[in-house]
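Quick start: read one record
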Amino acid sequence: MSTPRSEPDSPETDSLGSLEERIHRTVELVTSLKAERDAALQELSAAKKAGAEAASLRQEIEGLRNERKQVRVRIEKLMAQMDQVSGQ
């Protein structure tokens, strides 16, 4: 005589199989979400690095512009002195 627990299609077997499938899908979802999180963190890190490099380049450009302005002033002074010497 067969009992309900030994039948392969019993409600307990179905609910256990259903629970097992839901756990399996949850594990896959968690794994996928962790991978997405890791990728997002890598993108964030790259974006921060790029932002820091951009700030550094802006500072360098500003420094070069200031240096160019100083050189221009010095050259204008030298040319003015040369004009005075050649005008005498």
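The helical segments are 11-87.
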